[in-house]
């Protein structure tokens, strides 16, 4: 009667909310990985944008400017032909527009 009985609880309680018996990763780990991927993607986009803007702003050290040649005048557009009358596409007459709330 004086023998102590050990009722040791398992290290992981299956009834615990954070228990994951499957080999799949935990949800917190998935969220952390997604946020780190977003941060990495944002850094990549920011770096690409900075590189693009620095490439656009570059110029030469030559202070002499050469005038650009004048563009040739555009030829006059030809007049458009008159459009053909539109054929009726449906086999019935359209319903006349009205504001009456009635079914005939």
TrEMBL record:
<feature type="compositionally biased region" description="Pro residues">
    <location>
        <begin position="68"/>
        <end position="84"/>
    </location>
</feature>
<feature type="region of interest" description="Disordered">
    <location>
        <begin position="56"/>
        <end position="86"/>
    </location>
</feature>
<dbReference type="InterPro" id="IPR006311">
    <property type="entry name" value="TAT_signal"/>
</dbReference>
<protein>
    <submittedName>
        <fullName>Phosphatase</fullName>
    </submittedName>
</protein>
